[in-house]
Amino acid sequence: MSRIDGRRFGRDLWPVVREVGEHVELLAPEPGLFRNGPPLGLRLVPGARLGELEVLDRLLRLVVPDEIEGVVIGTAPGPARARRPLAYGERIVLIDPNAGASTTARASRSAGSGKQASGLAFRTPLGGRYYACPAPNAEAFVKVGDEIGAGTTVAIVEVMKTFNRVQYGGPGLPARAKVTRVVRKDGEDVASGDALLELEAIG
After folding, report:
1. Is 0.70 surpassed by the pTM of this model?
2. In terms of Cα–Cα distance, which of 8, 6, 123 is closest to 61?
3. Do residues 47 and 68 touch, judged by C-beta distance below 8 A?
4. Cα 165 to Cα 11, 14, 49, 128, 182, distances in angstroms
5. Is residue 17 within 8 Å of 123, Cβ to Cβ?
6. Could you tell me which residues are beta bridge partners of residue 150?
7. CA distance 102 to 100
8. What is the DSSP string of the chain?
9. How confident is the prediction along the chain (203 residues), in pLDDT tens digits per residue?
10. Interior angle at CA 185, CA 69 and CA 111, nearest 5
């Protein structure tokens, strides 16, 4: 593990990703004290350090997720502080994927986004081992065609031998949605911010 300020980094953590028009927001995956965020105008690339999040005296390194790249055009609201409290789902940065990108890169991203039926996805707030069912050979929590609402359990994510129920809901998601695709396979490892379900808004 790496060290900073005499303390060890507990682990790498990926932010929650949310599309806002042509821009992308990277959101806090857990509540904590955030620091060392990127300045306005900095270009972020996959795997780059996004900052550090202190959670219950653990120092977690935030990393830019795969396929996310762009220039920082907005940061967390409020005055800049050495350690800024963030709630789950609160903005870390707003980035413009097209700023400074080549025409080829822009076309590639547009083509990639067109492959999704709705562009709406539910993403896991936790990284760990993903389970689609409550027990072996049991029926999956959700399947294609199901309608889900706030509080619906959609998966279990195992983190350090603790089994955490993942429930539908969060910033930018509709109150009710229809599952159009289950993205992950049972037993796969997932990172915070990975898409679990593709959705279609209801109503």
Report:
1. no
2. 8
3. no
4. 21, 19, 28, 12, 17
5. yes
6. none
7. 7
8. --EETTEEEEEEEPPEEEEETTEEEEE-SS-EEEESPPPTTPEE-TT-EEEEEEETTEEEEEEPPTT--EEEEEE-SS---SSEEE-TT-EEEEEETTTT--HHHHHHHHHHHTTSSSSEEEE-SS-EEEESSSSTTSPPS--TT-EEETT-EEEEEEETTEEEEEES--TT--SEEEEEEE-SPTT-EE-TT-EEEEEEE--
9. 333 333 344 567 888 888 888 899 998 888 999 988 888 888 888 888 898 888 887 888 888 887 788 899 998 766 666 788 988 888 999 999 887 544 334 444 444 443 333 478 998 888 888 999 998 889 999 999 999 999 999 999 988 778 899 999 887 889 999 999 999 999 888 887 888 999 999 87
10. 35
State both tokens at 177. Answer: 């949605």
